[in-house]
Amino acid sequence: MDPNPFFGLIPELPGIAIDRFDLRCRDAAVLFFLSHCHTDHMIGLAEEKPLNGPLYLSPVSTVLISHRYPLLTENLRSLTLSDVLRTRVVPPDGSEPYELSVRTLPADHCPGSVMFYLETERVRILYTGDFRPTPETRSFIKLIQPNIVYLDTTFLNLEYAHFPTRDESTKKVTELCEEWLRADRKNLISLWLPATYGSEDLVRLLSARLGERIHASENQLSWYLYFPMMHDVVTDDTSVRVHVCRGTKRTSIQPLCSDPFSVHGTQDPRHVRTIRPSALRWRGLKPGANFWERQDNLYYVCYSSHASCNEIGDFVALLHPHVECVRSIAPDGPGGQVERDFLTNALTRNTSTGQVSIPSPSGFKLAGIQYDKRRNISLTESDESDDDPKPQIPKRLRSGD
Ligand SMILES: [Zn+2]
Ligand SMILES: [Zn+2]
């Protein structure tokens, strides 16, 4: 592995930039790719200098980016999961032109998130972006044979070996809502979201299962309404009983709007149950253990849009035996020695030939990244703004991503 953090450019594919749009990438690239619309993957998109080429992204991301950055509209090129882009790349650095084919795969991280599979005559590269695999992802992955993988290693840390599935998490959140709303007609739910963008599936499923619309703030509504699937889910009606209007803010234990209190005949915050879905605080979670925790009337529920450590292992195991090199797209690398061993074992799990060697102090076939110190997990606010991380876990610096 390359010890250098990933900053958007892939050495084997000159003229291509992925998830990075600063001036350095704009000068070096003629073809751009965006995996999803979290801010740490969009650095530089707001630059005034025009993009020197098309920007490929999913149809959902196309809608979001065209609203957020109207100046880029002419650059946007939607790729559906069945599209294959075939193009000739003429790198601006004068290196040899080459034929490139690109397809997208579902990343199941947030609406519209995709992985990119890029093939030339010489290399086959899988760029996962942020991802949490589902059975659908796995069925797509079986169709490709990358020899280089750029991997989301956010939770490549054995302390995050296990997360419940998002279905399990959503079910628990729904149960906590149902029991509270049933107990007293004055009771309200405030959902304290982990991310502004990326919680749509949770909000949508919760609304469907409760059979109620959910109040969102004006800002959230302007965002949610870009998603057709959210049109019957959220509302500006503050008298409903379930609220996401406080967004990711911790400022209060109550919903940000005050109307529901008067509408429902109470000013008493004890009638508000707050539910906090998040992943970061759930170190050491074991399968079968409770993945929720109560603090007064605040419930934490484990909910992750990134793969757990075990899911990362299962994912790379599917890719073997073709993979020769794994590179982290996280700015601080893929973890320590223990995680390196874990990744290598995962890569060799499905083979008896041992084509990828177990690491030793003298050499490591997934060469490049230094594993000599423990990595701290960190997430951007765009992914998860857990206001209650353990003190030893610093936040990822947004600008440093
Ligand atoms: Zn993300
Ligand atoms: Zn509200």
TrEMBL record:
Q: What are the GO BP annotations of this UniProt entry?
A: DNA recombination; double-strand break repair via nonhomologous end joining; interstrand cross-link repair; telomere maintenance
| GO CC annotations on file | nucleus
Q: Which domain of life is it from?
A: Eukaryota
Domain DNA repair metallo-beta-lactamase positions: 233-321
Compartmental location: Nucleus
InterPro entries linked: DRMBL, RibonucZ/Hydroxyglut_hydro
Q: Which Pfam families match?
A: DRMBL (PF07522)
Enumerate the residue ranges of region (Disordered). 376-401
Keyword field:
DNA damage, DNA recombination, DNA repair, Endonuclease, Exonuclease, Hydrolase, Nuclease, Nucleus
What GO MF annotations does this protein's record show? 5'-3' DNA exonuclease activity; damaged DNA binding; endonuclease activity
The family classification in the record reads: Belongs to the DNA repair metallo-beta-lactamase (DRMBL) family.
Instruction: Output this protein's name.
Output: Protein artemis
The organism named in the record is Anopheles farauti
